[in-house]
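SUBJECT: A protein chain and its fold
Encoding: whole-number codes for local backbone shapes
Chain under study, with its fold:
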Amino acid sequence: VQLVESGGGLVQPGGSLRLSCAASGFPFSVYYMTWVRQAPGKGPEWVSFISSSGGSTWYADSVKGRFTISRDNAKNTLYLQMNSLKPEDTALYYCARGEQRANFRREYWGQGTQVTVSS
């Protein structure tokens, strides 16, 4: 299992970023996928997950209405469009194989991409 996140960076409050996650080493199209974030000194928090087909999506209340998860199974890639970013969104963002809202399995995470929201 290999998951490689990209697209993070420094952005001002109210700004936008689009994260990508390139997947390989497993049949991407049959797995649910999750975005998880972890802020310094805090535990992991699930952000959003998506069904294998992309037809169903779920969001944590903290990001609902601001973030959009999507996937391109032809490209084995997962996305997270983040709009109206807030300082409290600052964290290391990971993509994860499977539905991971609890019982996090870090062996199925990528290396993460840093998102910093600051003026």
Q: What stands out?
A: Strands lie at 2-6, 9-11, 17-24, 33-38, 45-50, 57-59, 67-72, 77-82, 91-97, 113-117. The two ends are 37 Å apart (CA to CA). The longest strand covers residues 17-24.
